[in-house]
Amino acid sequence: MIWLETPKSLKPLVDMAHSVATNVFRPISRKYDLAEHSYPKELDALASLMSGMNAAGGGAGAGAAAGAKDKQKKPRDPNASNNGANMATVLGVMELCWGDVGLMLSIPGQGLGNAAIAAVANEEQLARFGDKWAAMAITEPEAGSDSAAIRTTARLDGDEWVINGEKIFVTAGERADCVVVWATLDRNLGRAAIKSFVVEKGTPGMELIRLDHKMGIRASDTAVLSFNDCRIPKTNILGSPEIDTKKSFAGVMQTFDNTRPMVAAMAVGVGKAALDRVREILREEGIDVRYDQGILNGSAIEAELRRLEAELEAARLLTIKAAWMADNKIPNSMEASMAKAKAGRVATEITLRCVELAGALGYQEDDLLEKWARDSKILDIFEGTQQIQLLIIARRMLGLTSAQLR
Fold first, then answer.
1. Which residues face 95 on adjacent strands?
2. Shortest CA distance to 179 belongs to which of 121, 112, 241?
3. With CB atoms counted within 10 Å of each terminal CB, which end of the chain scores lower, N or C?
4. Which runs of E-coded beta strand occur in 126-275?
5. How far apart are the C-alpha atoms of 278 and 306, rounded to whole Å?
6. Whether residue 67 has pLDDT greater than 50
7. Catalytic residue among 95, 140, 335, 383
8. Spatial contact of 335 and 325, defined as CB atoms under 8 Å apart
């Protein structure tokens, strides 16, 4: 059975993450929003802390170390309830992103590629890449939300894979130790031929083309990478090199089941930050939300805040459910998409509405509200747009394939 309270075993992790958000992220949030592409050196000290949290079983960044621990666990006991790396990840991420989303994405060793490694890597690969910071390279100029349209190729040449193509919107693409690259073994076979490969930084043939300027999460670098006859060891493919048309690319898609709840948690965190801040501003003006009376008996502002709080709580519960299912080895593809779709949309709505409720202060750089409004939009886009999530949910609910429902 899933419980809605924070598990006692994870309370210290949540408290630590909130302390980091308050004492490390918030004080430097505006600094690195204005200094785009500058690496936040203050985060170096956090790398060892986050690694320690993973080693202790927290898995606060969905890293490879946490995934390795989960892989070693016994099959699920239907009468037991396990709160493991996935639950720890979403609870920790919610608190960290209450501080700053871009800075959370910039913590060394906590890249989205680490979740991909945790999802499908074997023990030997976990040992090699477990301590590395891994970025994720999926999106291409001609392949955005449709991951199956990937044009980057990988061909086997002796004991090496040769990768050719271009990737855009690679979070931490410049800073990470390695990049998990999605490529096709055969363009004619569609989804079934899509595989993921680990390309380490400095590998000949991989080139940083540019760093993009962005509306939000500016503390995080977003890179464009090219691969020109980039050769990597044969053992750097994640999962089986065999093309199984029956399973399609289910192996690499497991990555999204891990990362979508994490992105949903980011959205919940920034949404809560905006609501907390606007309540402070309104309280200073003598306006407070009263919960001891009906919603129709209060002011319009009170009614609006209570509505936004309810939306955020729904997103939080969906996120927790998706993480709990993953920890208990229950397929969660639909629930992961539900959490991502709800939280991404709600965070954008909340942050923009809070800017409006705060008046002139919400639109100025004197306060972080306008920054959170800019940061939140990407959470409704990357790891699959709102429209893609709703399509996935519809397919799961109706029992239809991607070919039957496009």
1. none
2. 112
3. N
4. 134-137, 153-157, 160-171, 178-184, 194-200, 206-211, 222-233, 237-238
5. 12
6. no
7. 383
8. yes
Element (H, E) at 8: none
Structure tokens at 261: 């709840």
Distance, CA of 154 to CA of 161 (rounded, Å): 6
22-38 as b/e: b if 16+ CB within 10 A: eebbbebbeebbeebee
CA distance 255 to 119: 6
> What is 250-398's CATH number?
1.20.140.10
pLDDT, tens only, 283-327: 998 888 888 877 777 788 999 999 999 999 999 999 999 999 999
Please give the backbone phi and psi of residue 199, each rounded to the nearest 5 degrees, phi first. Answer: -115, 120
Q: How far is CA 311 from the centre of its chain?
A: 20
Largest CA distance in the chain: 74
- Cα 363-367-372 angle, rounded to 5 deg: 75
**What is the rounded CA–CA span in Å between residue 259 and residue 112?**
7
Class for the domain spanning 134-238: mainly beta
What is the sign of the dihedral through the CA atoms of 75, 80, 81 and 85?
negative
Whether 383 sits among the annotated catalytic residues: the reply is yes
The residue assigned the tokens 């890179």 is 223
Which residue type sits at 157?
A: D
Q: What pLDDT band is residue 53 in, cutting at 50, 70 and 90?
A: low
Structure pTM? 0.90
Give the tokens for residue 164: 């050719």
**DSSP annotation string for 149-176:** G---EEEEETTEEEEEEEEEEEETTTTS
Q: Which residues sit opposite 204 in a β-bridge? A: none
Query: Do 357 and 309 touch, CB atoms closer than 8 A?
Result: no
How far is the C-alpha of 57 from the C-alpha of 74, rounded, in Å? 15
Length of the chain counted residue by residue: 406
Residue 238: strand, helix, or coil: strand
Decide: helix, strand or coil at residue 399.
coil
d(CA 352, CA 356): 7
Give the residue extent of every domain in the chain. Answer: 10-129, 134-238, 250-398
